[in-house]
Q: What sequence folds into this?
């Protein structure tokens, strides 16, 4: 008696149920519907391309064995992928999966084989908070899709400098032409407070402004991971994936957060692949370079390198000044030039901190109804600026200073009163005070057995000279940048 497709598939299912976990079985096999059996080729219907990919990626072995048992070695499995009639955006629903993805064992998929009206998903995924039904991004909804972007992060307020030039111009170019950008994916990385979120949101906002029909979605990795976990729990992973596949520009912030989260990374990997294959733009940020990303799947990290990786560095003195001026302007506020210089010189770690300091200064001034002069600025900053958490080795500091000023180490330690040596020594004391936890007494002892009052005098002298002489202050600035890197 010829077998029918239902019997064959049910037998396969019995075998598969023994082989895979109960949860996986429910999620990935129960939704499959047997369609037809022609000769030794069984066709099954799966709900989406995402679903198909997932099966091929994770269950190809067990599927092969099941088919072997039922149909023999010549048995084949074909997939029919449900395509949402009419409503489906052009992308994911009818995507052409590259043939390399079709495994060698003979299982094949049909390119949009069948247009079966799609049933509403039983589980509504939690993706994208406000979009209740992930399948409803139809033509008319594209403009009102909530991109989760903060309108305050735009290019107009993003100050350009040496430290962000590449990332910024890549971002602008993507924003202008998100469809065929040369930078896909774009990975922006850099330390905290250097403008990653601002920049990638600015890209998203600009895309929306110039291409209102594009679906842009910003999501933090934390939120993405939470949604994924929720989807695993609710067995709505494929609906979750499907939701993301409808996006034209996907922005995922702080991807390092996915470290160690294997399953979430896998879902992201699939989404990434689909979007990328369909020419959709992906933008991710990370607090470190791809090379340093720990706990991330290598295949995911290597994807990041396909496009452009651009880093944001610490802003230099010039850029810090520009940022201060721009922020003050935006707030309708002004500060004396000396104060601007002082703040730019003192707050070097990152832009977020710089903003924090400005807010304090402005608050201070309006509370006291007074001008912010240099003294007020210094007092305010005293409580805020704490640049370095980790000590740097004192021998590193003095070596750098000796190199920088071209003064031998011995001279720094001995009694020489030559002006250039005195300055180098004072700067060494000043920076040792700043970057180590050594007491004034200990620092004095280290630099030629001097008294603690000599050290505090040196600190005062360096401060004074920096106020007076911009080029000297830049010198100290450069040394500090070097030590910060070391403390990194
Ligand atoms: P990150 O995501 O790298 O931690 P953010 O993007 O949150 O940093 O930036 C921290 C703050 O600094 C934000 O308020 C942002 O607007 C501001 N900022 C960062 N870079 C710039 C820049 N180039 N010009 C102006 N403001 C900036
Ligand atoms: Mg951020």
A:
């Amino acid at each position: 008696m010829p077998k029918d497709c239902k019997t064959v598939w049910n037998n396969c299912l019995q075998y598969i149920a023994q082989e895979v976990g109960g949860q996986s079985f429910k999620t990935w096999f129960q939704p499959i519907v047997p369609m037809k059996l022609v000769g030794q080729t069984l066709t099954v219907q799966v709900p989406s391309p995402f679903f198909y990919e997932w099966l091929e990626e994770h269950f190809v072995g067990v599927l092969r064995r099941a088919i072997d048992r039922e149909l023999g070695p010549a048995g084949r499995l074909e997939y029919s992928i449900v395509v949402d009639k009419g409503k489906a955006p052009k992308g994911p629903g009818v995507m052409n999966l590259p043939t390399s993805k079709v495994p060698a064992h003979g299982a094949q998929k049909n390119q949009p084989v069948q247009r079966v009206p799609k049933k509403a998903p039983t589980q509504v995924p939690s993706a994208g908070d406000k979009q209740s039904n992930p399948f409803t991004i139809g033509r008319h909804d594209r403009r009102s899709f909530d991109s989760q972007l903060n309108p305050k992060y735009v290019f107009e307020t993003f100050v350009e400098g040496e430290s962000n030039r590449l990332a910024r111009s890549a971002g602008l170019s993507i924003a202008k032409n998100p469809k065929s950008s040369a930078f896909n994916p774009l990975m922006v990385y850099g330390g905290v407070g250097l403008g990653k979120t601002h920049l990638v949101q600015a890209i998203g906002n600009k895309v929306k402004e110039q291409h209102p029909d594009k679906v842009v979605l910003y999501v933090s990795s934390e939120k993405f991971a939470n949604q994924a976990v929720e989807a695993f729990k609710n067995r709505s992973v494929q609906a979750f994936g499907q939701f993301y596949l409808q996006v034209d520009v996907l922005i995922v912030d702080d991807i390092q957060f996915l470290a160690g989260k294997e399953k979430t990374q896998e879902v992201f990997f699939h989404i990434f692949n689909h979007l990328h294959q369909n020419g959709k733009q992906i933008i991710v940020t990370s607090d470190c370079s791809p090379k340093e990303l720990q706990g991330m799947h290598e295949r995911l990290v290597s994807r990041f390198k396909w496009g452009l990786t651009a880093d944001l560095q610490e802003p230099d003195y010039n850029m810090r000044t520009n940022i201060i001026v721009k922020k003050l302007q935006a707030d309708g506020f002004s500060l004396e030039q000396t104060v601007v210089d002082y703040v730019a010189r003192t707050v070097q770690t990152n832009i977020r901190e710089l903003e924090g300091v400005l807010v304090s200064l402005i608050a201070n001034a309006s509370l006291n109804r007074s001008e912010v002069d240099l003294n007020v600025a210094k007092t305010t900053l005293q409580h805020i600026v704490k640049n370095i958490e980790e000590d740097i080795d004192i021998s590193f500091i003095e070596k750098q200073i000796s190199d920088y000023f071209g003064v031998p180490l011995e001279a720094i330690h001995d009694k020489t009163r030559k002006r250039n040596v005195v300055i180098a020594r004072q700067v060494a004391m000043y920076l040792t005070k700043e970057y180590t936890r050594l007491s004034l007494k200990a620092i004095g002892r280290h630099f030629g057995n001097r008294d603690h009052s000599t050290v505090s005098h040196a600190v005062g002298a360096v401060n004074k000279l920096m106020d007076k002489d911009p080029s000297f202050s830049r010198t100290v600035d450069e040394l500090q940048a070097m030590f910060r890197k070391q403390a990194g």
